[in-house]
TrEMBL record:
Upper taxonomic lineage: Bacteria, Pseudomonadati, Pseudomonadota, Alphaproteobacteria, Hyphomicrobiales
Organism: Bradyrhizobium oligotrophicum S58
Keywords: Hydrolase, Protease
Pfam families on file: LON_substr_bdg (PF02190)
Highest taxon above the source species: Bacteria
SUPFAM superfamilies given in the database record: PUA domain-like
Protein name: Putative Lon family ATP-dependent protease
Residue stretches making up the Lon N-terminal domain: 17-212
Amino acid sequence: MPINAEYRGPAELPEIIPVFPLAGALLLPRGQMPLNIFEPRYLAMVDDSFRDGHRLIGMIQPDVTHSSSEDRPVLFKVGCVGRITQLAESGDGRYILELTGVSRFKVVEEMTVLTSYRQCKVDYFPFIDDFTARKGESAVDRDALLAVLTDFLKANNLKVDWAGIEAAPNEALVNALAMMSPYGPAEKQAMLEAPDLKTRAEILVAVTEMDLAKKRTSGDPPLQ
């Protein structure tokens, strides 16, 4: 994980963070998420995060089950804060950056701010285990995860680097597969809010098995 800062607990993270609402985007602790930033308000958010010195952005999904304006959607109550660990300028006004996940958070309240981007007061303590790398790895059913991954790849005519998968620790494997999975906001939120790594893997397996079963029984294409 390419990150210079070490966060050993909630006290080392700011209580108020900028948030980036993005449907279908799942960031998990120690996972890497590429982002293409082009809206002026989020370009300003990135600039401010460097100016403030923390380089932290909270990724959070809009909650589409609630009616809201397109410009200011209702947010889910749980997101994940990430640190900007790579940034490049595109030459046409965009930032190409990578976030590395640090910890999930619970939204306490949204702040009234002058910035064009939204900011929230958050609580990291409900997810204190996120600060311990590879927590709960031994409880993950790796065989079940790899079996359903194999079925998914076959059904979608996809190939992967199996050597890399076999070498990956359980935490990295589960979180990477969850983040890259093609499922919708509700499924992504369920994986985000899973109480532990074992449960996240079980949710991923269950959702994938349902997708594969649907394809087999109805002839529908798999989720894309």
